[in-house]
Amino acid sequence: MFDGLRSAARESVVRALWDVPRLLRHPVWRSADPGQGNGLGVVLVPGFGAGEASLVPAGSWLRARGYRPASSGVGFTVGCTAELLKRLLHSTEKHAEHTGRPVVLLGQSRGGGLARLAAARRPDLVHGLVMLGSPVLDPLGAHPNVLRIARFLARLASAGIPGLLDDDCMRGPCFEEHVKDLAEPLRVPAISIFSRSDGIVPWQLCQDPYADCVEVHSTHTGMGFDPKVYELLGPRLAAWATGTIRAFTSSPSTTSSSPIVQCG
């Protein structure tokens, strides 16, 4: 019980917002090369119940460095997986057309899982994939409190309220199809960032065998405000923007060029 209370306290949204001043003072935020991104498009996919505001810092950081961030159009990411994926693919296709080349998908938590599904389905639209605390090995392996909310939304959906996660997304053919697709090999470069301090998603579930799995020391809700995350993404995104990393992968990745601890 006490472990659960400590996890809940660590994952408070208010506590995550306390990290904002630290991020804004950090050199990784203040030192910006406006030509770094070379106009590369980035589609931002928020986590379950978080909404687009949760990735506003990421969007600002990217924009200041010459990337072109855009919304995924999935709202609070609480709807049916198939419908959210359809919206994300539409937004990805439009942004790729707008920028004239494939884009990066950057998703947090459930948003990272959706981004992975989109990358596996339409690799022609995706230049690279970033997943932050995303339980791709088991979408239902999150903290019990999160699952209780998801099941409550499913009950509301069965009662006739539209736009919510439904029961078929948590079991049955729809769920099985998407779990199978999450295990598909990736044909784009990808990175999965995880934390052992994550109080929402067990870090083991973020170990995508087709991505570079790299550890930071952050809470789940605080990943978008953690300077270490941006220190990690800076050189990776810059390499993608200049085309120095664009190799397709067809087998599990086990290496990382990041100085931050990687867990295999």
From TrEMBL:
Q: Which Pfam families match?
A: Hydrolase_4
Q: Which InterPro entries match?
A: AB_hydrolase_fold (IPR029058), Hydrolase_4 (IPR022742)
Q: Which SUPFAM superfamilies match?
A: alpha/beta-Hydrolases
State one molecular function term (GO).
Answer: aminopeptidase activity
- Every copy of the Serine aminopeptidase S33 domain together lies at 95-157
Q: Does the keyword Hydrolase apply?
A: yes
* Key words of the record: Aminopeptidase, Hydrolase, Protease
At the top level, the lineage of the source is Bacteria
- The question of whether Protease is a record keyword is answered with yes
Q: Please report the name of this protein according to its UniProt entry.
A: Serine aminopeptidase S33 family
Q: Which organism is it from?
A: Lentzea atacamensis
Q: Could you read off the lineage of the organism from its UniProt record?
A: Bacteria, Bacillati, Actinomycetota, Actinomycetes, Pseudonocardiales
